Amino acid sequence: MSLxxxxxxxxxxxxxxxxxREDEIHAIAPLQTAGSDALSFLSxxxxxxxxxxxxxxxxxxxPAMRAVALARGACIVAADPxxxxxxxxxxxxxxHRQGEDVGxxxxxxxxxxxxxxxxxxxxxxxVVERGAVIGAHTQLKSRVTVxxxxxxxxxxxxxxxxxxxxxxxxxxxxxxxxxxxxxxxxVRIGDDVEIGANTCIxxxxxxxxxxxxxxxxxxxxxxAHNVHVGRHTAMAGCSAVxxxxxxxxxxxxxxxxxxxxxxxxxxNVHISTNTVVTHSISRPGQYTGVFPMDDNARxxxxxxxxxxxxxxxxxxxxxxxxxxxx
Length: 326
Description:
This protein is an alpha/beta fold.
């Protein structure tokens, strides 16, 4: 398994310097562990010391690191080394893939009224239920369940154990008992979406749960009924979104973050790890907050006070300054 450096730059661009187009790469590896036949990359200048010590045959770097990289050996200069590295991994996978997976695995169950594009792949032990639609070049890995009338667009990748279209958590309370609300909607997923292992996306109660184009979901994520996730938003593992919340485009939700229901997040909102989002966010930016559990009444009082701490601090500073001036 190998690729020539010349083939890489021909396919992806960039400038090869200090090396031969005929040099062969047999692995892609981090700077610290790369051998003399490996291609590596440096995207963060803080790791410049690792670059100098690396045994890699060639290193992908940005223009600012060109001279340092050349002092060590061969390099490919690219505007964004990390993106270039990502594209190299794709090129490597395509070059060494043992044929394209298409069709339906013998152990999968596909309802006669489901629609599966001829270029799609339905993997081992998958279930595609009545009225579901699977678009072109979409891949369902093993043990994926796609519920009734749920739709996936083109070029999606759905990893093992994903459940799309289970019932949302909808119940009405009556005399100490719960009355089920039938979940009559579905799930609509756009193009180029990737969904990590064991993630669950519930169907809508009345309208549909919607995942727009280019969304990337990590493992073990819960999206409740009627959630709407905007295009090119990325969510990390163990994050969860309660029902009827709308997340904008180009957002990032870090691991184990939680968003309560019926909220709206603007485009380009970034939520830090373990943050609990309890109100809508109308402006782009980074949001962080962790607050310990307490008796609810006391927690609400403390939370309200906490939000005023900065103003109180400024008032105290002003009072102290007044005393000094007096």
